[in-house]
Amino acid sequence: MLQGIVDNAGTVAVCLLLAGLVALILVRLRRDKKRGKSSCGCNCGCCSMDGSCHKQSQP
After folding, report:
1. Which band of pLDDT confidence, cut at 50, 70 and 90, is reported for residue 36?
2. Half-sphere exposure (Cβ direction) of 27: Cα atoms closer than 13 Å
């Protein structure tokens, strides 16, 4: 078992690095969602959810 890990040390290192990056991305997305941030570009004219995500100001 240990010899298999040693033989594939590069692959194991890359997999661990990618897993860490994915974990950091998920933590950041969750933190941003809790803070009320979104990935909205605010170009509602090109969006299929036009008018659904932003409250319309009432005159």
Report:
1. confident
2. 6
